[in-house]
């Protein structure tokens, strides 16, 4: 069952890319700076109390990540279902999606700027701070409304999920993206006083982070256009034959 093996093994590099994309989404200029007030709001504390480590909002942060993960998993399933529906046109879809993702990459590399990608669209979650349920609702709102901030990265991963057309792998791919985005939230919620210096360092290097994000997006688009994921799957199967037994 070589075709099944290829699809399964090709998921491995795609998952790694999704993980990095989630992390870079967290480090993006319109997410990282708002993390302290978000954590403080979720925990029902002030930013000053958060910095002092008196009360760390670990439980609300867990529910926040569960909220955004819920949306991303549903988006992954929807993207894969869409990929199945347009299976006969999938070649055209992958080409268009690959070119679009590469254009997004050139934006972040600074080759040119796309105006709407420099704006933020937010959804107001209402007065839901200070509770686990409120944090979950805030996570849902964050995943829905924090666009187009995460749009290019998320679009790239959704395009990969749609090109696979497997509901399970599509959901898993967006789950990995959610891990990349959500785990840093949890780490900061648990260790904010110790990690505040690292956050300051990241803020000072936002321009470099954007260029890394652009290079990643451009590479994803190129791999989609050239069949790079399939080629990598062949290489992985040849280099690590035991991977043929996965799945």
TrEMBL record:
Coiled coil: none annotated. The keyword Nucleotide-binding does not apply. It is a multi-pass membrane protein. Residues 16-225 form the Cytochrome C biogenesis protein transmembrane domain. Belongs to the DsbD family. The chain crosses the membrane at residues 6-35, 56-79, 91-112, 133-158, 170-192, 212-237. Its main location: membrane. The keyword Glycoprotein does not apply. It is found in: Membrane. This is Cytochrome c biogenesis CcdA family protein. It comes from the Bacteria. It comes from Paracoccus pacificus. InterPro entries: Cyt_c_assmbl_TM_dom (IPR003834), Cytochrome_c-biogenesis_DsbD (IPR051790). Keywords: Cytochrome c-type biogenesis, Membrane, Transmembrane, Transmembrane helix. It holds the Pfam family DsbD_TM.
